[in-house]
Amino acid sequence: MKKYKMRRGETLDENAPDLKATIEGYFGAVSGTEEVDGHELYVVEDPDNPVFERIVAGAAEYSGKKDKLAVHFEERDAADVIAEGNADAAEDAVSDKNDFLLEVTGRDAKSRRDSMKRSVEDDPDDVPNA
Fold it and tell me: What angle do CA 22, 24, 30 make, to 5 degrees?
C-alpha cells in the first residue's frame, strides 16, 4: 500500500470531492470497502482494465495532518496480459494510474518519485546500524 501526499496548499477533498466517483471513473465500479491500517478504503474487485486484478484506494486520514491518498494496485503478470492479446491494455493501465494520481494528488510522476525518494532519505528507521 502506497500513500501519496497532496501538492503543497491542496487537500484531498479539494482535488477529489467525490473520491468514490473518481475511482469508479478510472477503474470501474466500487464493490465495497475494506479497512486497511485503520482507514476505510474503497475496493474495486473487477476493474475495467484486464491488467488489474483488484484495486484498493481511498483517503488515509490523520489527526492534525493533511489526508493522504492510500492506493494498492494488484496487477496481473504482464506476460499473461500480452499473451491474451491485451498489450494495449497494459499501456492504458499505466496511463490510468498516472492520470488518476495526478488528478487526485495534483502531482505528476516525477514529483511523486522525488517525494518518495526524500521520504526514504529522511526516515531514520531505514538507516542501518553502524
Answer: 125
Domain ranges of the chain: 2-123
| C-alpha cell recorded at residue 92 | 492504458
Query: How many Å apart are CA 34 and CA 47, to the nearest integer?
Result: 16
Q: What is the DSSP track for 47-85?
A: -SSTTEEEEEEEEE--TTS--EEEEEEEE--HHHHHHTT
Instruction: Report how far residue 19's alpha carbon sits from residue 13's, in angstroms, rounded to the nearest whole number.
Output: 8
Record the pTM.
0.82
Name the pLDDT band for 117 (thresholds 50, 70, 90): confident
- Mean per-residue pLDDT, 46-55: 94
Q: At which residue does the C-alpha cell 474503497 appear?
A: 42
Q: What is the per-residue pLDDT for 130?
A: 45
- The set of cell numbers assigned to 91 is 499501456
Can you give the pLDDT at residue 119? 67
CB 55 within 8 A of CB 71: yes
